[in-house]
UniProtKB/TrEMBL annotation:
Name of the protein in question: Acetyl-coenzyme A synthetase
AMP-dependent synthetase/ligase domain residues: 105-492
An annotated Gene Ontology molecular function: AMP binding
Top-rank taxon, per record: Eukaryota
Keywords, ordered alphabetically: ATP-binding, Ligase, Lipid metabolism, Nucleotide-binding
Keyword Protein transport: no
Sequence ranges assigned to domain Acetyl-coenzyme A synthetase N-terminal in this UniProt record: 49-103
GO BP, sorted A to Z: acetyl-CoA biosynthetic process from acetate; lipid metabolic process
A single cellular component GO annotation: mitochondrion
Gene3D superfamilies: 3.30.300.30, N-terminal domain of ligase-like
Family: Belongs to the ATP-dependent AMP-binding enzyme family.
ATP-binding found in the keyword field: yes
Catalytic reactions on record: propanoate + ATP + CoA = propanoyl-CoA + AMP + diphosphate; acetate + ATP + CoA = acetyl-CoA + AMP + diphosphate
């Protein structure tokens, strides 16, 4: 039976070319060449018809794509069973598959020596290439090792590693044996890691001895040691060696590479139901507690694969360079799952944009012959400041598409990316999506090769995505040239299914605000032409260098300081980071502290309890209270206007509990920003 299973899952062809001539008769050849499945869609003779079909016949669209592009152990019997208003989302019900088989085995069958991963190590010029065959081998050994150590189907394994092949193999090994993974960004502190391990009820952690980034060594294993002290459920920690420096090992620790060598290179893939959990990924929301978004097997993988293929126009043989860390959703979907499901070659970038110098990205593009480059606006803005020479030094003629993700890209950065990096040749795709959406939902491509791209706009919905804008009363805005709350009107396979251990929060956050729609938390503008432009978060989540952080999370930490009575954190517009963190702190009456020492202490606390990137850029300490409504709500609108120095915009203060508080705040802001640049 095991053999039959293996045969069955690996015998499917990696599709694309299975459509026969008889199906394509009468179809304009460009659309069938563009997407073979389109040949089977009634009345679809061009791309815009295909887009319409995918939205109005989303079930038929996804059924065809799922059959064609995934290898199933058992076919699904129901395409979808969704009720957005109740937060019930199921795709490809009845189907069984294994994600690691889809990402590895089927490509090993057709092209074992193709490079799957190019690990662009921190040390420039020392890249390591991993073929599909050897990635499968690595994954199988690791899967067997995890199994031997008692990791079972349904367990959750926390991965706290830098971006590297063993991290990818760890994710895929979990998928292979039916465990869920929970990758925690290796920049998070011990406490933040511990919170995520506990919430995920993880009994196993995988880490490395040390991390290396930008030439600096970080003690990841030590951080894990500290974290697991407050995680009684953790029974074992697998430790891989990223550097040669030994670390203290305890009885709980397992030397990963050493033990992997003892394992077999064949590992029976678990037959997973479409809706079994593939991974949890924690992200910030508007409360102090991060939420573990849950993604499942088939729908997530299919959506990552299809968006990777079509948004970036990825073709066989291309080298795909997504520079995101695997600790974020972008790393999951576009460094790992999308490219591997498509049998692609994907770059794992371990370094920073300016190490050893600001030419790093482009030197890498030249050396690795990267065809699609996918990065964050914050890095583009930073590099722009270093000047064009760093770009011109290197040959970028392999580049075909440039992508941007994580935050709005301002026109100046967009133009520079397009003109200087891409020599005016490559389409720039500003891709809008979220941890919750699993993959790209709005982006200028796919569209006709000559379709216009407007700088700084995500523009066009992906296949089957139906964006909807709501006014403040919750009514659908039907016309163009309007702004509103961005919702998505029908489910798609890539969307998150729930929040781990808190389905109620999932419903309240995403489904309740606009019943029947998925609420994204972002605002958007729809132009006269019908293009979408994201205007920013509508909730108390801010975006610092493309990293999401809830203002409440930072406030929770500040409030733990003995001298602090209360605090309010807001985001403000920042040249490089997109948004910076500005904290207002009210001291307790009787405390005597020195401002600078207190700020230092508060910064240390945030860094220790969350991560460095969450540290406030400004901390304004004062003694009166925060501006509040009579019902006790902090008026963030007022604080934002003060920081934006838009005092006329402060507006009506008559509902304030104590209007004089605002005077002190304005004064304090002036003093602070006069002093600190
Ligand atoms: C923001 C990252 C404008 C947005 C993939 C979203 C963007 C949040 C864009 C999700 C974009 C992401 N233009 N804003 N192209 N892409 N965002 O979960 O506010 O880390 O809600 O996912 O980033 O961040 P997350």
């Amino acid at each position: 039976a095991a053999e039959a299973l293996r045969m069955n899952v690996t015998s499917d062809l990696p599709v694309i070319c299975q459509v026969t001539a008889k199906h394509t008769a009468g179809i304009k050849c460009n659309v069938a060449a563009f997407m073979p499945e389109a040949a089977g869609f009634d009345g679809v003779s061009d791309r815009s018809a295909l887009q319409e079909f995918s939205v109005s016949n989303s079930e038929s669209f996804w059924a065809a794509v799922a059959r064609q592009r995934l290898s199933w152990i058992r076919p699904f019997h129901t395409v979808q069973d969704c009720d957005l208003s109740r937060g019930e989302i199921k795709w490809f019900v009845g189907g069984q598959l294994n994600v690691s088989v889809n990402c590895l085995d089927r490509h090993v069958h057709t092209c074992p020596e193709r490079v799957a991963l190019i690990w662009e190590r921190d040390e420039s010029g020392s890249e390591v290439k991993v073929t599909y065959r050897s990635l499968l081998e690595m994954t199988c050994r690791l899967g067997n090792l995890l199994r031997r150590h008692g990791v079972k189907r349904g367990d959750c394994v926390t991965i706290y590693m830098p971006t590297c092949p063993l991290a990818v193999a760890s994710m895929l090994a979990c998928a292979r044996i039916g465990a869920a993974h929970n990758v925690v960004f290796a920049g998070f502190s011990a406490e933040a890691l511990a919170e995520r391990i506990r919430d995920a009820q993880s009994g196993t952690v995988i880490t490395v001895n040390q991390g290396v980034r930008g030439g600096k060594v970080t003690e990841l294993k030590k951080t894990v040691d500290t974290a697991v002290q407050s995680c009684p459920a953790v029974q074992q920690v697998f430790v891989a060696m990223r550097t040669e420096n030994p670390v203290a090992m305890t009885a709980r620790d397992v030397a990963m590479e050493e033990e992997m060598l003892k394992e077999d290179v064949v590992c029976e893939p678990a037959a997973m139901d479409s809706e079994d959990v593939l991974f949890l990924l924690y992200t910030s929301g508007s409360t102090g507690k991060p939420k573990g978004l849950v993604h499942t097997q088939a729908g997530y993988l299919l959506y990552a694969a299809l968006t990777h293929r079509y948004v970036f126009s990825y073709h066989d043989g291309d080298v795909f360079g997504c520079v995101a860390d695997i600790g974020w959703i972008t790393g999951h979907s576009y460094s790992v799952y999308g490219p591997l499901a498509n049998g692609g070659t994907t770059v794992l970038f371990e370094s920073t944009p300016i190490y050893p110098d600001p030419g790093r990205y482009w030197e890498m593009v030249q050396r690795l012959k990267i065809n699609q480059f996918y990065g964050a606006p914050t890095a583009i803005r930073l590099l722009l400041k270093y000047g064009d020479e760093w770009v011109h030094k290197y040959d970028r003629s392999t580049l075909k598409t440039l992508g941007s993700v994580g935050e709005p890209i301002n026109t100046e950065a967009w133009e520079w990316y397009h003109r200087v990096v891409g020599d005016g040749r490559c389409p720039v795709v500003d891709t809008w999506w979220q941890t919750e959406t699993g993959g790209i939902c709005i982006s200028p491509r796919p569209s006709d090769a000559d379709a216009e791209i407007v700088p700084g706009m995500a523009m066009r919905p992906f296949f089957s995505i139906k964006p909807t804008l709501m006014d403040t009363e919750g009514k659908v805005l039907t016309s163009n040239d309007v702004s509103g709350a961005l919702c998505i009107a029908q489910p798609w396979p890539g969307m998150a299914r729930t929040i781990h251990n808190n389905h109620q929060r999932f419903i309240e956050t995403y489904c309740r605000p606009h019943p029947g729609y998925f609420f994204t938390g972002d605002g958007a503008y729809r132009s006269k032409e019908g293009y979408y432009q994201i205007t920013g978060r509508l909730d108390d989540v801010i975006n610092v260098s493309g990293h999401r952080i809830g203002t409440a999370e930072i406030e929770d930490v500040l409030n733990q300081c003995a001298a602090v009575a209360e605090s309010a954190v807001i985001g403000y517009s920042h040249d490089l980071k997109g948004q910076g963190v500005y904290a207002f702190v009210v001291l307790k009456n009787d405390v005597e502290v020195q401002g600078a020492a207190l700020c230092q202490q508060l910064n240390n606390m945030v860094s220790k309890k969350i991560a460095k990137y969450a540290c406030p850029d400004f901390i304004q300490v004062f003694v009166q209270r925060l501006p509040k409504t009579r019902s006790g709500k902090i008026m963030r609108r007022v604080l934002r206007k003060v920081v934006e120095r838009d005092l006329d915009g402060v507006g009506d203060l008559s509902t304030l509990d104590d209007p004089t508080a605002v005077q002190e705040i304005i004064q304090g802001h002036g003093d602070l920003c006069g002093k600190q640049p």
